[in-house]
Every structure is written in C-alpha cells, then in structure tokens.
Amino acid sequence: MPALIIFASVILIIAAEEIVRRTPKKKGISGGLDWRIKKGVLTLSGKGPMENFSSGNRAPWGVRIREIVIGEGVTTIGENAFAGCERLVSVTIPENVSRIESHAFAYCDNLSEVIIETAKEKIKIGSGVFPENCSVVYKAH
Fold first, then answer.
1. In terms of DSSP bridges, do strands 74-77 and 135-138 run parallel, antiparallel, or are they unpaired?
2. Does 66 reside within a domain?
3. Which of 1, 37, 72, 130 is found 20 to 30 A from 86 (Cα to Cα)?
4. Sign of the dihedral defined by the CA atoms of residues 112, 116, 119, 125, in that order
C-alpha cells in the first residue's frame, strides 16, 4: 500500500510539472525584447530584432493571443513568432519593422488582414509568413 501511495504521488508531481510547463507566462524577456500579455493583448517593447522560434524553441507567449502591439524599437519579427495564433484577426506592423521572418504568422487561420506601415520595397518578408486568405496592405507614410 505505501508503494502505491508513493507511485501515485510521483505521477501527480509529474503531471503538475507538465501543466506548469505548458501554461504560458504573462510577461518576460525574449531575446532583447520585453513582452507582456494582458487580456489577450501581447505588447512587445524594447529595441532590436525578435528571436526566431521553432517547434523545439516555442515563443514564450503561447498561442492564445488575439491582438499584438509591436513597439517602435522592434526591428524584426522572428521566424514562427506567432505561428498557430488562431485568435488573431488583424495585425498592424509599424514602419520600424524591416524584416518578417518565415512562417511568422503561419497557421493563424483567422488572420484576415495585415497592415504594414511602410512601402513594400522597404521590408523583407520570408516565405510562408501569412495564411493564404490573408490580405496584406502596405501603407507608406
């Protein structure tokens, strides 16, 4: 009986650690950028490029965001940065962003419009960045 209790306790601890590990954080630092989530809105601030992400190195903010605010100091949107964020409907990318890496918004199935606040020739966009049904509008100031 004591062995069964110990075994069950170990299983519960492992399960709890897995739940904590998978629960997205509310704020942090990624690369050189600060980020914070409040009521589904992700705000990125700081200066410089965003780091790239992959299946082995996922973005720390998770996929439950519905809106993104990109600060004026952010220069690059990283690879797979918002991949799978199905709640996103529209995104505005400020003119200070000069590069959007591959698959940054891949599998954001409800993303219907992206507004890029710079001329098309002033921004480099990687492959598979936006979903097929997404409209991309360039608005140079």
1. unpaired
2. yes
3. 72
4. negative
Query: Which distant-in-sequence residues (6+ apart) come within 8 Å of 26 by Cβ?
Result: 36, 37, 38
* pTM attached to this predicted model: 0.79
Residue 108 has pLDDT above 60, yes or no: yes
- Report the CATH number at residue 87: 3.80.10.10
- Alpha-carbon distance values, 47 to 12, 36, 126 (Å): 42, 15, 21
Q: Which residue has the tokens 């360039």?
A: 138
Residue 88 lies in a domain: yes
Q: Which domain holds residue 82?
A: 25-138
- Rounded-to-integer distance, Cα 71 and Cα 69, Å: 6
Mean pLDDT across the chain, nearest whole number? 88
How many residues in the chain?
Answer: 141
Checking DSSP bridges between strand 41-46 and strand 67-70, what pairing results, if any?
Answer: parallel
**Band (116; pLDDT cuts 50, 70, 90):** very high
Is pLDDT at 124 greater than 70 in this prediction?
Answer: yes
